[in-house]
Design a protein that fits this description.
mainly alpha, 60% helix, elongated
Length: 139
C-alpha cells in the first residue's frame, strides 16, 4: 500500500520533471544553435509562442513544483493547449490555400518532403514519456 507521503513525494517528482522539461525546451530554443533548417525565423517564433503560451497559463516564468495546485492531469491538458505550430508549417498551410503573398512554386521547392522536427513534437513526446511514468498511480 502506498502512503500519502509516498504519493506526495512522487507528485513533486513528476511536477519537477514536467517543469524541468519546459525549462530545457526554453533553453534549447533560446540558445544560439539553430534548430530549424528551413527558416531562420522559425526558432524565434517557436520560443516566443512557448513563452507566451506558458505565461498565459501561469507557467512562465517556470514556477517551483510546490506552487502548482492543479492535478498532474490538468497540468498536462494545460500544457497541451498551448498552440506551438512552427513558422514552417504556417507557411506550408498558407501556400496550400494560395496565399497571395507567397509563390506556391517557391514554397513547394523550399519545403521538400524532408521531415522537420519542431517544438510541438518535442513537447508532445516529452509529455508522453512523463505520462508513462505516471500511469498506475493516483496522484
Amino acid at each position: 500500500m502506498t502512503s500519502l507521503g509516498d504519493i506526495q513525494s512522487r507528485r513533486r517528482d513528476i511536477l519537477a520533471e514536467i517543469l524541468s522539461t519546459l525549462s530545457k525546451l526554453l533553453d534549447l530554443y533560446h540558445g544560439s544553435h539553430r534548430l530549424c533548417r528551413k527558416n531562420p525565423d522559425c526558432d524565434a517564433l517557436a520560443l516566443g509562442k512557448l513563452m507566451k503560451g506558458l505565461k498565459d497559463t501561469g507557467l512562465y516564468p517556470i514556477p517551483e513544483p510546490s506552487s502548482i495546485r492543479d492535478s498532474i492531469d490538468a497540468l498536462f491538458v494545460t500544457i497541451r493547449s498551448i498552440e506551438l505550430s512552427s513558422l514552417c508549417s504556417n507557411l506550408r498551410k498558407k501556400s496550400q490555400y494560395g496565399h497571395p503573398l507567397i509563390d506556391r512554386v517557391e514554397i513547394y521547392d523550399y519545403y521538400s518532403d524532408e521531415v522537420v522536427y519542431h517544438l510541438d513534437e518535442e513537447l508532445r513526446d516529452s509529455l508522453l514519456a512523463i505520462e508513462g511514468k505516471v500511469s498506475g498511480m493516483e496522484l
